[in-house]
Amino acid sequence: MYRAAGAPARSASAPVVRSLRQPPPPTTGVSFMNNQKQQKPTLSGQRFKTRKRDEKERFDPTQFQDCIIQGLTETGTDLEAVAKFLDASGAKLDYRRYAETLFDILVAGGMLAPGGTLADDMMRTDVCVFAAQEDLETMQAFAQVFNKLIRRYKYLEKGFEDEVKKLLLFLKGFSESERNKLAMLTGVLLANGTLNASILNSLYNENLVKEGVSAAFAVKLFKSWINEKDINAVAASLRKVSMDNRLMELFPANKQSVEHFTKYFTEAGLKELSEYVRNQQTIGARKELQKELQEQMSRGDPFKDIILYVKEEMKKNNIPEPVVIGIVWSSVMSTVEWNKKEELVAEQAIKHLKQYSPLLAAFTTQGQSELTLLLKIQEYCYDNIHFMKAFQKIVVLFYKAEVLSEEPILKWYKDAHVAKGKSVFLEQMKKFVEWLKNAEEESESEAEEGD
């Protein structure tokens, strides 16, 4: 190797020592070669003082309870004074945080333990729903207290619904009198809109249903609800939350029948609710019948099988024949795609209906059924403008196929028709009706001559 002149020779065995110190930065210009990042300064051993407003207040429902109970004790049983006290206390006490405690006190007199029992070592008050008289008037007065409170402090609405759902799950832990009071109160609150009908889902709890608690509670609840409103308003509220078809679930599975529901609630004095549920069940059965009927027709099932199925459903669900003929007519007319041209649709309709005449004839054994079918045909031809000129042809076809008879046709023509397309259809039927009348007169005269 070459070395600089005058440099001392290095022994081969001498260790190589490298300097740990970095070379000093250049004094002029900017170095683009040094990519090392400088370390950021760090803070160690620093303490930050927490601001008082950032400190979390300890959750203490007992202290809140004591304040509410003390105030209720001072107001006594004057519910107007109770409402004023609760209104004023909302400005001082944390209702948002202690909503459950507040409602526990107003309903049961103190904080409730799981299962619905009051803790022995806690304060309690008699100014509450459970300690009040068991009558509808008193519960209406308490409902006003809750209504005013929630209108004043809107944020309590959700907490109150959650409270009622919880109370319904605790029903077994309450006495029969307490359950009755809660049921009447809930019915009034449902009627005035303070509560949503979705809270009734708690009544479908398996244990409550099994022991008959749900059904008994529902009797008192619906009585007070219907007393405030009518059955139509109650039905509308149930429909909004899709509970109009679930009322039979208040009973165990082996008792979920229209007959049992009707008997139970009619004997309890709620005939209007029984009739409503029966009607709902019938509507559901009719929809199911139409759906199955359309499927059978689309598969091309034999008419004898379809007729047998429909008659079984009629018997099982107590559906009268005039209703069934309407369902059969709708199903028959929905199984085909109709021509859009008026001059062709009549011919298509006659061909289609001639095929289904035996099926229709099976459910026009009563005069009322025939009249119902005539009205259905009239409405259909009016609602589907391409069929306006086909009305008379359809009626004549059904007369020849013995689906319809003279008397219902004449009655329809005289006074049983509806307003839809009346003038057009009566004009179409004029000659045929005259022919029917003449044929009837001839038959009567022939009968008299035979005598």
UniProtKB/TrEMBL annotation:
- Pull one GO CC term from this UniProt entry: cytoplasm
Q: Which domain of life is it from?
A: Eukaryota
Q: Which residues form the W2 domain?
A: 279-446
Ranges where the record places region Disordered: 1-56
Q: Biased composition, Polar residues: where in the chain?
A: 28-47
Protein known as: Basic leucine zipper and W2 domains 1
Residue ranges, compositional bias (Low complexity) = 1-19
User: Corresponding gene?
Assistant: BZW1
Do the record's keywords include RNA-binding? no
Gene Ontology biological process terms from the UniProt entry:
regulation of translational initiation
Indicate the family of this protein.
Belongs to the BZW family.
Give the record's keywords alphabetically: Activator, Transcription, Transcription regulation, Translation regulation
